Amino acid sequence: MAGNGVFAEIIDGDVFKYYCEGEWKKSASGKSVAIINPTTRKTQYKVQACTQEEVNKVMEIAKAAQKSWAKTPLWKRAELLHKAAAILKEHKAPIAECLVKEIAKPAKDAVTEVVRSGDLISYTAEEGVRILGEGKFLVSDSFPGNERTKYCLTSKIPLGVILAIPPFNYPVNLAVSKIGPALIAGNSLVLKPPTQGAVAALHMVHCFHLAGFPKGLISCVTGKGSEIGDFLTMHPGVNCISFTGGDTGVAISKKAGMVPLQMELGGKDACIVLEDADLDLAAGNIVKGGFSYSGQRCTAVKVVLVMESVADTLVEKVKAKVAKLTVGPPEDNCDITPVVSESSANFIEGLVMDAKQKDATFCQPYKREGNLIWPLLLDNVRPDMRIAWEEPFGPVLPVIRINSVEEGIHHCNASNFGLQGCVFTKDINKAILISDAMETGTVQINSAPARGPDHFPFQGLKDSGIGSQGITNSINMMTKVKTTVINLPTPTYTMGKM
What pTM was computed for the model? Predict the structure, then answer.
């Protein structure tokens, strides 16, 4: 159970503590932030409302801890990460329980997220040893006009203090995707979890605590974004920000100053279906891509662009699969569970009502109870409808019928988002041409968009983000190149044996 057993020290009464200097603490504010269960719409947990003074303390400690951590042997850093991964997987049940109650993630998927996170940490440890264990050697006479009088040695060094801000939908997995690379590279880490998902993140942080990482190296502060959000992202002690979320990221990027940014800010992932596509394959992936975790994924299929000649057949196949989706509480492992908040449900409903007013075809009746919205496929959607462009982050999927590949590509590229997209066709030549033409960070051919596997590059264009993620890219992003040049008194050349 959450907050029990080895996790007993992370809670005081009914309020979970924050983590600083290797200890679980109560905030001096005396205030807490309520976490609402999306299913019951009642308070499920409470977390500390940290103050700006406590953030200052965390940053000061993180900076000091990083200096000694950078001197820790690479193999030792990796060893501790492997230990944390094992502890995390060992305690998957209570952490998954938090995910079910905080963000209404289906129970089975919640366990999968925790296990996947442990695997990510272990892979990061191994990849970090490979990447950071080697440098580069350059000689000066490879550039015109130079003799061999300089030897250049390059290596990767840590940036310093990394601020990690994961989103509600994967508060454990997308936290460790930032924590692992930061730590293996020799950085310290300050985590600001989302309110919905904070308790799962606190349990995850405790697994790192149990693994024996140095005090102060990892911190986790909770509280209202309005009170400590800007203060964190603009803090002079931060040397890098890794953020996953929505529009807030745009504001952060404008305020952050001269620190490296790694940002993934959502998408409107388009699925283009051609006449020669395997329509059963396409329909299955559309339902999986559009409705898993109630569509609350940045890589969810968010608009289907299908050739008119096969649209009727595809829509019928998708409708048949949607009809089989189960709807209900996450504890029952239902396919469709309540969306994260009432405000989210209201936003989704606004998109649906706009489509209704503009005569979209409802393939199912619209139904909502509290935060629970039944899966809805909207056919004959036109570009003048909000749902054609805005990201619902819910179980509502628009279908736009197109008359040419060019029309589909144009709609995809007209979006201000550019995270992922997918194309279904049996013609690999068409697939590659369309992939090259789509202005998205990734294009999946004959499969729904997906972030993983976690070592694959993951990036967005336009308003979908800055930089690239994936284990290798994240490690490289959280380091910088250090160069040492050896100047020789006379040119030197290696000679083959005569």
Answer: 0.96
